Amino acid sequence: MSKPLFNKVLVANRGEIAVRIMQTLQEMGIRTVALASDPDLQAEHVRMADEVIHLPGQKPAETYLQGERILVLAQALGVDAVHPGYGFLSENATFAQGCAEHGMIFIGPRPEVIREMGDKIIAKDKMVEAGVPVVPGWSGDLETDFSVIRAKADVIGYPLLVKAAAGGGGKGMRLVHQASELEAAFSAAAREAQSAFGDARVFLEKYITRPRHIEFQIFGDHHGNVVHLFERECSIQRRHQKIIEETPSPALTPQLRNAMGNAAVKAAEAMGYTNAGTVEFIFGEDGSFYFLEVNTRLQVEHPITEMTVHQDLVRLQVQVAAGLPLPFSQDDLRQDGHAVECRIYAEDPARNFMPGVGTLDFYRPPQGPSIRLDSGVREGGEVTVHYDPMLAKLVVWGKERQAALEKMSWALSRFAVLGVPNNVEFLKAIIDHPRFRAGEVHTHFLEENPVDLKPVETPIAAILAAGLSSHILRSRVGSATPRVQEEHGIFGTTSGGFSQTLSPWAQGGAWRQLVCQK
Length: 518
What we know:
The chain is of the alpha+beta class. It folds into 4 domains: 8-107, Rossmann fold, CATH 3.40.50.20; 136-206, Dna Ligase, domain 1; 212-448, ATP-grasp fold, B domain (D-amino Acid Aminotransferase, Chain A, domain 1), CATH 3.30.470; 460-515, no CATH class. It is globular, with a radius of gyration of 24 Å. It has an 8-stranded antiparallel β-sheet with strand order 14-13-10-11-12-15-22-20, with helices on both faces. The chain has 19 helices and 23 strands. The longest helix has 18 residues, at 254-271. The relative contact order is 0.10.
């Protein structure tokens, strides 16, 4: 057995991404160290780790975002590398630099690249220099006379976006339809940017009508090799957050895929990029594409790339961080089949997607060929208010797009959750939508195609049965010889979530499969 590339790696994250990273590290013979806040002491990623660093507290600011404190504790445990996952400190250049200062390797790009790409104005200027197409726009000093800004906006044309230079997640962003709205939108975006990022700088950008959001997975090593691992279609978004992703994109011809892939590689080369990253593009209805931003980390949606190119991206990250060259060239890479990912959240679609909290009284994800679940929770676990409400990522693969969508629809219909509200039925409604099936997607798809969330009438038996404790439900469903008949009542909860207010019997699907006598 060969010696592991690293002895011990700290996974500076939590939830499903921490679990997913640890699996690959342990497969590689590397010991894993987890971080655990007070609410996470019994979490899946903590149970899975070889060692644990306890961070007393609950909120991210007092636990998972305490970069220097985390590094000091990791150094004391003999950690020799740190994987940041996504979110939290993953795109924090100071944290990446701190890893080196404490004698640990940061499994990601160089700190200076993180810093440059975190500033959207600098990133855009760098892409212009590299010859990568960018959206027409203007960036300048906030002290610029507003008459000059107004004139620049007239040249760009309306509608346009005011965007935060250090922004993300839709914060510090305003859509401006006409000149009379510009000054108020500019000021509001700057205030929000200052509050969210401590940086009030904003810039103007031409608004592309009905755009698609298409990103390319890039990878670079320390030997000058750079490749892309094809695209991901991420156009189904809610409040600027992706909820369904797929690859290949139904919009790209081989010629467009090649052109965008070459642009992504050109962008990576201009940065001197190493490790995993993503070059994101806006794709117009006319087939034009423009650079949007670079994410200097592993993406939430990386599993669909793994399923279609048959590569473990976390393993590649570790190998590159250890100084090994990429084990393939661009010509070696091929896409095989079609993959789709749905993000399962503890949120209530019937109540404006309010995040849900509580105990996962019942948690039964679907299983089957070419179905993958990346999850950081288990039945009986607690969903708290302190962290992102994502429960899992459900991923499926098919030989072609329609087969993958049919598999995803089937899998969602058999994803059973009780105890917290969830978006499973909402996701299935999107997957089954005729326009989605036809590939007619863009970033405003949900605004133009609202999903019907009318609840099914719940029989009185369900209301009465809701008073039963969850352990009775589990004992009946989990019995070795279940013989629960429909006329004996319907089990549910009173948590008020979209899934839970509907009768499992009225919905059929997962509940009939789980509870009815075989």
